[in-house]
Design a protein that fits this description.
CATH topology of the largest domain: Nucleotidyltransferase, domain 5
Distance between the termini: 33 Å
Radius of gyration: 20 Å
Largest sheet: 5 strands, mixed
CATH superfamily of the largest domain: ATPase, nucleotide binding domain
Helix content: 40-55%
Shape: globular
Bound molecules: 5'-O-[(R)-(carboxyoxy)(hydroxy)phosphoryl]adenosine
Order of helices and strands: EEEHHEHEHEEEHHHHEHEH
Number of strands: 10
Strand order of the largest sheet: 3-2-1-4-5
Number of helices: 10
Strand content: 15-25%
Structural class: alpha/beta
Amino acid sequence: MKILALESSCDETAAAVVEDGRHVLSSVVATQIEQHKIFGGVVPEIASRMHTEAVSGVTAEALAQANLTLDEIDAIAVTYAPGLIGALLVGVNYAKGLSLASGKPLVPVHHLRSHIAANYITHPDLEPPFLCLVVSGGNTLLVNVRGYTDFEIVGRTRDDAAGEALDKAARAMGLPYPGGVNLDKIAKDGNKTAFTFPHPHVDGAPLDFSFSGLKTSVLNTIHNAEQRGESIEVKDLGASFLSAVVDSLERNTEKALEQYPETQKLVLAGGVSANSVLRERMFNLAKRQNVKLYLPELSLCGDNAAMVGAQGFYEFSAGKRAGMSLNACASMPIAENEQE
Ligand code: KG4
């Protein structure tokens, strides 16, 4: 089964054709990074406008690279939630138009489910159940993936997402957007013990995360140094901060593996899963806990439509369809029975 997939939840306009959820026939990503860079972060209005300009060209290119026409496609999958509402609406409306014009079924896909599904492309042998740490710009979750469309949240952030904390800290350190990526680069040469940061716990919820205190702490460190006229070695600050964020991700993931001993597989998903420190620490954790580790290939960590096509296949197989009343939603829990 061949799915044409669209993604426009944040600052990448992407289209892909994926066969049977696992084989990528084409994947095209038009990134807006350069346009948002001068503002230090994503400007939602600019994102929406650029998606509108790019979506038809990117879709045509994905079909051309797969050497297929819309007629030869079996279904259209689209990211409908969560994300920037104006950005999501572009992909959703374009997909609705394609579905209406072609008569092909429309399949709505949750953005974080598709980040998890990036691993089905990278690892053809991977099947649920598994434990997944989802670390993206807007979300940090520990998810018990019981089936392809059956998710149980076992830990979540109570405030900021890990990616958001990394981006804000990087911006305060004067690093260009996208912050997390640049923080990763400079931290490689830094001393991770140069600065001490808090290691927050959420009382009564040992698998939940909190990153806002950590973020405030790094901002205070920078402001205090400025007020005293002292200079800070940014690579040391970056390495120490990144290490504290990863400590928290690692600690809770380890607890979750202990709490769910039947879990034999640990999976990472989302933009922050490209981080070199996190990948290394998860590798060691998996070894310690004697579980198999699955990491998405670097090109599939950030937003792309191939992962939407992968998850779209499993959503379609589970009977999920949308009609012309499909709307985009800025927030939406990954599990149908969960509150956000
Ligand atoms: O999953 P994603 O592409 O977008 C969302 O769906 O939210 O994640 C974007 C996040 C940003 O916070 C970005 O700074 C972070 O992923 N990121 C990284 C790295 N690459 C991307 N953070 C740390 N190290 C990286 N190498």
